[in-house]
Design the sequence.
């Protein structure tokens, strides 16, 4: 039987009862010779104690297996927890490689980063990870990938084996990498000889971290972007204490905030940017910041028009359905769609038009000053732009977001030539009713963009 036992950070108060019992029953105890000073009071008088050097982990495992095969009750000791950067993995691996029928048990201990977390208060209050900077068994290229991932992922990070005489450059390299992702004010704690009489804890920041103050007896904890210092404590808030958005309005506002935090660099005017945000919110695609084009002040002009009760004409019912009813109710707007109007059907049949084209042609006569919103049919947008070109129609504005493959580009190119009427369009073959409605909703809510 082999028991791999974690002794905690060193003080007898940190050795759990299971570990105490395992050591007191062992006939053979193997470990780094430095650790025996912490368990002398627990060892049987006739127990065989075998001390080895730090670099002899494999040899310790082999000796443990040899004595276990001879029927001894073997304990392999290590600091902290035996399964974290310690002897457990090596012992299990050696037993598995040789396909041996030896019972192996891991007796847990209090790990260095857990001890540090407790000493500091609550730095481990949210997601965290641990990284060993020792490249004796892990290639530095692998360690470096993990450093980038942890820094970018905003994990609270515990550093094992941060520095030694031969390992003098890795911690500085890690610091340089973290500074690419984290603020210089990020809290950092250097925790030395935890649980022992020589214990020393220094709280600093990532920017002020002096790697020369760190040695092999230290564990270093780096906070995340939310970690803060209060007196001699480091606190990482639990995310769930910030109540998640629940109502539709809260969820929408949280979505807009998320978009703003991740929106690409741009030179859009504020009113156009707000419309672009609404389009991104509709699609989940940040590329729509490049696909929305408007004439100058178009969204601002339509905002004033709509809050005064202006009429909206659409080509299809889906656009009408996408315009938020709370806005049209509040400002007493009419939303007109004559797609299925009896008169439109007769006009379509008589003149050989599509239903949407006929509906828009009829609406142009009845509501010539309306805001025309096209989210489906290129023929409808062509009808509007042709009438505007001929001077027959002078609307408050035109939103062109027809989608498809036939006449779509041509219809939008026509709209671009109109210089005396505010317009907005979704370029190329992209678009659809949801985007047309999103632009209208952006005009309704332009004041929200200022908060």
Sequence:
């Amino acid at each position: 039987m082999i028991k791999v036992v974690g002794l905690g950070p060193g003080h007898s108060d940190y050795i759990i009862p299971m570990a105490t019992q395992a050591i007191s029953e062992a006939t053979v105890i193997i470990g780094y010779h430095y650790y025996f000073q912490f368990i002398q009071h627990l060892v049987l008088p006739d127990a065989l104690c075998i001390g080895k050097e730090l670099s002899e982990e494999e040899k310790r495992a082999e000796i443990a297996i040899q004595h276990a095969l001879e029927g001894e009750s073997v304990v392999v000791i290590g600091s902290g927890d035996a399964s974290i950067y310690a002897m457990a993995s090596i012992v299990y691996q050696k037993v598995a490689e040789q396909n041996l029928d030896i019972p192996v048990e891991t007796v847990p201990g209090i790990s260095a980063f857990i001890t540090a977390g407790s000493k500091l208060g609550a730095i481990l209050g949210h997601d965290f990870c641990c990284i060993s900077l020792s490249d004796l068994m892990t290639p530095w290229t692998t360690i470096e990938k993990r450093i980038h991932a942890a820094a970018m992922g905003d994990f609270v990070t515990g550093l094992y084996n941060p520095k030694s005489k031969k390992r003098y450059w890795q911690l500085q390299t890690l610091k340089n990498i973290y500074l690419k992702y984290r603020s210089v004010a990020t809290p950092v704690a250097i925790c030395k000889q935890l649980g022992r009489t020589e214990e020393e804890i220094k709280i600093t920041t990532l920017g002020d971290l002096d790697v020369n103050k760190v040695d092999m007896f230290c564990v270093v904890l780096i906070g995340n972007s939310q970690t803060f210092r209060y007196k001699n404590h480091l606190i990482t808030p639990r995310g769930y204490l910030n109540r998640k958005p629940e109502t539709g309005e809260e969820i929408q506002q949280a979505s807009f905030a998320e978009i703003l935090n991740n929106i690409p660099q741009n030179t859009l005017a504020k009113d156009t940017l707000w419309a672009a945000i609404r389009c991104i919110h509709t699609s989940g695609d940040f590329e729509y910041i490049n696909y929305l084009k408007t004439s100058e002040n178009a969204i601002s002009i339509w905002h004033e028009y709509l809050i005064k009760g202006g009429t909206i004409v659409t080509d299809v019912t889906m656009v009408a359905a996408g315009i938020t009813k709370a806005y049209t109710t509040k400002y007493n707007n009419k939303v007109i769609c004559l797609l299925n109007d009896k008169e439109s059907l007769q006009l379509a049949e008589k003149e050989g038009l599509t239903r949407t084209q006929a509906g828009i042609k009829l609406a142009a006569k009845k509501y010539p000053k309306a805001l025309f919103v096209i989210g489906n049919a290129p023929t409808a947008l062509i009808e509007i732009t042709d009438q505007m070109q001929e001077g027959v129609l002078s609307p408050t504005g035109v939103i062109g977001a027809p989608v498809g493959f036939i006449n779509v580009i041509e219809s939008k190119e026509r709209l671009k030539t109109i210089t005396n009427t505010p317009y907005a369009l979704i370029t190329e073959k992209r678009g659809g009713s949801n985007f047309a409605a999103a632009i209208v909703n952006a005009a309704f809510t332009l004041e929200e963009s200022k908060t």
Summary: The first helix runs from residue 17 to 25. The chain is about 40% helix and 20% strand.
